[in-house]
Amino acid sequence: MSEQLLSADIALIQRIIPHRYPFLLVDKVVDIDGIKSGRGIKNVTMNEPHFQGHFPGKPIMPGVTIIEAMAQTAAIMVGTALDMADKNMLVYFMAIDKAKFRRMVVPGDVLELNVTTTRGKPGGKVWKFSGVATVEGEMAAEAEFTAMMDLGQE
Protein backbone atom coordinates (compact mmCIF):
# COMPACT_ATOMS: atom_id res chain seq x y z
CA MET A 1 0.00 0.00 0.00
CA SER A 2 1.58 3.29 -1.08
CA GLU A 3 -0.58 5.63 0.97
CA GLN A 4 1.01 9.04 1.46
CA LEU A 5 1.94 9.91 5.03
CA LEU A 6 0.00 12.87 6.41
CA SER A 7 0.84 15.65 8.84
CA ALA A 8 -1.02 18.24 10.89
CA ASP A 9 0.31 21.73 11.62
CA ILE A 10 -0.93 23.87 14.52
CA ALA A 11 -3.74 25.40 12.42
CA LEU A 12 -5.15 21.96 11.53
CA ILE A 13 -4.62 20.68 15.08
CA GLN A 14 -6.86 23.46 16.41
CA ARG A 15 -9.54 22.49 13.88
CA ILE A 16 -9.47 18.86 15.07
CA ILE A 17 -9.21 19.00 18.88
CA PRO A 18 -10.69 21.70 21.14
CA HIS A 19 -7.61 22.13 23.37
CA ARG A 20 -6.08 25.60 23.64
CA TYR A 21 -3.33 27.28 25.65
CA PRO A 22 -2.33 26.39 28.29
CA PHE A 23 -3.48 22.83 27.63
CA LEU A 24 -2.68 22.36 23.95
CA LEU A 25 0.45 20.21 24.33
CA VAL A 26 1.33 19.30 20.73
CA ASP A 27 2.90 21.65 18.17
CA LYS A 28 2.56 19.37 15.14
CA VAL A 29 1.96 15.75 14.19
CA VAL A 30 3.96 14.15 11.40
CA ASP A 31 4.32 10.73 9.81
CA ILE A 32 0.60 10.02 10.18
CA ASP A 33 -0.01 6.58 8.69
CA GLY A 34 -3.79 6.55 8.48
CA ILE A 35 -5.30 5.53 11.82
CA LYS A 36 -2.31 3.25 12.53
CA SER A 37 0.43 5.55 13.85
CA GLY A 38 1.78 9.07 14.08
CA ARG A 39 4.50 11.16 15.70
CA GLY A 40 3.69 14.29 17.68
CA ILE A 41 6.24 17.03 18.29
CA LYS A 42 6.19 19.19 21.44
CA ASN A 43 8.76 21.93 21.84
CA VAL A 44 9.16 22.27 25.60
CA THR A 45 9.66 25.89 26.68
CA MET A 46 10.22 27.59 30.02
CA ASN A 47 7.20 29.86 29.63
CA GLU A 48 4.71 26.98 30.12
CA PRO A 49 2.60 27.53 33.24
CA HIS A 50 3.33 24.19 34.95
CA PHE A 51 7.00 25.11 35.30
CA GLN A 52 6.14 27.86 37.81
CA GLY A 53 5.33 25.22 40.41
CA HIS A 54 6.87 21.99 39.06
CA PHE A 55 9.44 22.76 40.37
CA PRO A 56 10.75 26.25 41.21
CA GLY A 57 14.45 26.25 40.38
CA LYS A 58 14.25 22.78 38.74
CA PRO A 59 11.62 22.84 35.97
CA ILE A 60 10.43 19.35 35.02
CA MET A 61 7.48 18.60 32.72
CA PRO A 62 4.92 16.63 34.78
CA GLY A 63 4.54 13.01 33.71
CA VAL A 64 0.77 13.36 33.44
CA THR A 65 1.18 16.15 30.89
CA ILE A 66 3.48 13.90 28.84
CA ILE A 67 0.74 11.26 28.77
CA GLU A 68 -1.82 13.95 27.89
CA ALA A 69 0.43 15.04 25.01
CA MET A 70 0.48 11.40 23.80
CA ALA A 71 -3.32 11.30 23.95
CA GLN A 72 -3.61 14.59 22.05
CA THR A 73 -1.23 13.18 19.42
CA ALA A 74 -3.46 10.10 19.07
CA ALA A 75 -6.60 12.24 18.71
CA ILE A 76 -4.92 14.45 16.10
CA MET A 77 -3.66 11.39 14.20
CA VAL A 78 -7.12 9.80 14.07
CA GLY A 79 -8.80 13.14 13.40
CA THR A 80 -6.48 13.87 10.49
CA ALA A 81 -6.85 10.40 9.00
CA LEU A 82 -10.66 10.50 9.28
CA ASP A 83 -10.97 14.13 8.06
CA MET A 84 -12.46 15.36 11.35
CA ALA A 85 -11.46 19.04 11.00
CA ASP A 86 -14.28 21.36 12.09
CA LYS A 87 -16.46 18.46 13.28
CA ASN A 88 -16.32 19.13 17.05
CA MET A 89 -14.55 15.90 17.95
CA LEU A 90 -14.06 15.36 21.68
CA VAL A 91 -11.87 12.71 23.25
CA TYR A 92 -12.14 11.41 26.81
CA PHE A 93 -9.67 9.24 28.74
CA MET A 94 -11.10 5.91 29.84
CA ALA A 95 -7.91 4.24 31.11
CA ILE A 96 -4.17 4.73 31.43
CA ASP A 97 -2.13 1.55 31.86
CA LYS A 98 1.52 0.58 32.17
CA ALA A 99 2.70 4.18 32.52
CA LYS A 100 6.43 4.44 33.15
CA PHE A 101 8.71 7.44 33.34
CA ARG A 102 12.36 7.05 32.43
CA ARG A 103 13.86 10.53 31.89
CA MET A 104 13.11 14.06 32.98
CA VAL A 105 11.73 16.38 30.30
CA VAL A 106 12.92 19.96 30.75
CA PRO A 107 12.70 23.31 28.93
CA GLY A 108 14.68 23.19 25.69
CA ASP A 109 13.81 19.56 25.00
CA VAL A 110 11.97 18.48 21.87
CA LEU A 111 9.54 15.80 22.96
CA GLU A 112 8.63 13.23 20.31
CA LEU A 113 5.37 11.42 20.95
CA ASN A 114 5.10 8.16 19.00
CA VAL A 115 1.62 6.66 19.15
CA THR A 116 0.26 3.46 17.66
CA THR A 117 -3.36 2.34 17.54
CA THR A 118 -3.82 -1.06 19.13
CA ARG A 119 -7.63 -1.08 18.90
CA GLY A 120 -10.09 1.12 17.04
CA LYS A 121 -11.74 1.56 13.70
CA PRO A 122 -13.48 4.33 11.76
CA GLY A 123 -16.90 4.94 13.29
CA GLY A 124 -15.90 3.24 16.53
CA LYS A 125 -16.08 5.10 19.83
CA VAL A 126 -13.54 3.22 21.98
CA TRP A 127 -9.91 3.28 20.88
CA LYS A 128 -6.75 1.97 22.52
CA PHE A 129 -3.25 3.29 21.90
CA SER A 130 0.34 2.60 22.84
CA GLY A 131 2.59 5.63 23.25
CA VAL A 132 6.29 6.25 23.72
CA ALA A 133 7.71 9.71 24.39
CA THR A 134 11.37 10.32 23.60
CA VAL A 135 13.89 13.15 23.76
CA GLU A 136 16.87 12.85 21.40
CA GLY A 137 16.13 9.15 20.97
CA GLU A 138 16.07 8.46 24.72
CA MET A 139 12.81 7.16 26.21
CA ALA A 140 11.19 9.67 28.56
CA ALA A 141 7.86 7.92 29.14
CA GLU A 142 5.62 5.17 27.88
CA ALA A 143 1.98 4.25 28.43
CA GLU A 144 -1.01 2.45 27.04
CA PHE A 145 -4.24 4.41 27.09
CA THR A 146 -7.86 3.97 26.15
CA ALA A 147 -10.08 6.80 25.00
CA MET A 148 -13.64 7.36 23.91
CA MET A 149 -13.79 9.44 20.75
CA ASP A 150 -16.99 11.38 20.41
CA LEU A 151 -16.86 12.01 16.70
CA GLY A 152 -19.15 15.01 17.02
CA GLN A 153 -21.44 16.69 14.60
CA GLU A 154 -20.87 19.47 12.10
TrEMBL record:
Which Pfam families did the record assign?
FabA
Q: Which residues form the active site?
A: H54
- Output the InterPro entries linked to this UniProt entry: FabA_FabZ (IPR013114), FabZ (IPR010084), HotDog_dom_sf (IPR029069)
Q: What is its main location?
A: cytoplasm
Q: Which SUPFAM superfamilies match?
A: Thioesterase/thiol ester dehydrase-isomerase
Task: Tell me the HAMAP family matching this sequence.
Answer: FabZ (MF_00406)
Family, as annotated: Belongs to the thioester dehydratase family. FabZ subfamily.
Q: What is this protein called?
A: 3-hydroxyacyl-[acyl-carrier-protein] dehydratase FabZ
